[in-house]
Amino acid sequence: MLDIHQLHIFLVSAETLSFTQAAHRLHMSQPSVSQHIQLLERHFNCDLFLRNGRVLELTDAGMTLVPMAREAVALSVRIDETMASLKGDVIGHLMVGCSTTPGKYVLPQLLAHFHERYPKVRVTCNVCSQNSALKMLWNGEVHFALVSLEREHQPDFEYYRYLCDRIQMITPLDHPWAQKGEITLDDLTSGRYILREDTSGTYIAVSESLGRGGVSMADLDNLLTLGNSEAIALAVQEGLGVGFVSEIILDRLNSVQVARVNIRDVAIQREIFFTRNLRHPATVAQNAFWNFLQTEQQVYCKEYSAV
Known about the structure:
This protein is of the alpha/beta class. It folds into 3 domains: about 5-85, Orthogonal Bundle (Arc Repressor Mutant, subunit A); about 90-165 and about 270-295, D-Maltodextrin-Binding Protein, domain 2; about 165-270, Periplasmic binding protein-like II (D-Maltodextrin-Binding Protein, domain 2, 3-Layer(aba) Sandwich), CATH 3.40.190. It has helices spanning about 5-15, 20-25, 30-45, 60-85, 100-115, 130-140, 175-180, 200-210, 230-235, 245-250, 285-295, and strands at about 50, 55-60, 90-100, 120-125, 145, 155-170, 180-185, 190-195, 220-225, 240-245, 260-265, 270-275. Strands 3, 4, 5, 6, 7, 8, 9, 10, 11 and 12 form a 10-stranded mixed beta sheet that branches. It is elongated. The protein starts with a helix and ends in a 12-residue tail after the last helix.
């Protein structure tokens, strides 16, 4: 009979492609992880990994097993949590994938409130790009994704709009635009910019808003690309250029001295969504969290308001 624990070890090993990293994540010894994988391979009478020293690669059999093992482990967890809930407790483990800004500045406070209500539910947060978070959600590696990119063409995803985040242009304090406080769309092409990567929610929101005014991101002098909004704020403070940063971040970076400059007739904002995959049946804990979002937390869709 299949051992669910061994399937879980296999999945972590398949994700990390390293028995050492899998052992660290599972709080096991590396020899123990290797032994469980060997027992699983003996059960199926085939190799699940190609081993070349410390480098692992999934075999065809291993790749075939991954989605089925994920379903089996998820079902096992759902059974345990459902049976525990019969006693009146909400018990479980939630996994959330989220993009950088929500992961640092939105999610912790929300999860603290949720934990006060359901102290027997623990949460693991994976901070990554929003595309990675959505991919993990699709694969069943996380139960929820917190992203600023809604993909309406994906019918299996359900989105819940949680808040609207205003994106603010910032400049050095001694920049000419800082003295004016407001510029026009025509002024934009004379600036030097420090921008996020083009897959980030901030970049996409800026691109779409400026595009509606007839300004392309290609029209901007992109001096530097940084994958971190805090780094952009610090670079702007040092006078390297101007940038666009979430007000969620600006309101928390009190030590950073920059000027906020408006663009006439342009409001840049992005909506942040919680997302779940309806293909995967929800556990009691997952349903409790989804209901908590909608009944216990106010939805913010102002220019910006903290959660």
